Amino acid sequence: NGKIYPDANADYNIQQAQKADILVGVYFFSTAVNTQEATEEAAFVADAIKGYKISYPVVYDCEGYENIDSRMYGLSAKERTENAVSFLNYIEKQGYTGMFYASKGALENSSYWDISKLEKNYKIWLAHYPSPTYPLIENPSYSGKYDMWQYTNRSVVGGIEGNCDMVVSYAV
Predict the structure, then answer these.
(1) Is 126:107 a contact under the CB 8 Å cutoff?
(2) Cα(170)–Cα(159) distance, rounded to whole angstroms?
(3) Number of other CB atoms surrounding residue 57 within 10 Å
(4) 35-49 and 77-93 are packed helices; what angle lies between their axes, rounded to 10 degrees?
(5) Is the dihedral of CA 129, 130, 131, 136 positive or negative?
(6) Closest Cα partner for 170 from 29, 60, 57?
């Protein structure tokens, strides 16, 4: 709907991670339909994390744009890429490292994004769940650039209820 909703647990989670000396990054799920909205989203994120030591990237994620019910439905790859660039440029001007998140299918299909532009300018977080997966294989079967690999969304972590994503960080 174009409204920005804060994560009610974000401050607590960041504070607890930092108390435990865990590296912290943040993730934003965008629904921007133009660069002005993407910049507003980035400003919201930068304001929300001001004062925290953010040691990992600030990540831009945009999904669901192929769903006819999505407000982003019908945006071109160029428009989606421009939104991502607007968000990530704003974040980097605030002194954070920007990162782009997408699935292997979205990254391999240039009809969704201008991948070469994103790979050239930002870190990439690849989501791909092969079988077998890490640690049985060290890298995914993706030939493009990536700095992090999310290899499952069904892991179990003690103290956390429900399934967890698991990620390998290569050079972040």
Answers:
(1) yes
(2) 26
(3) 25
(4) 30
(5) negative
(6) 57
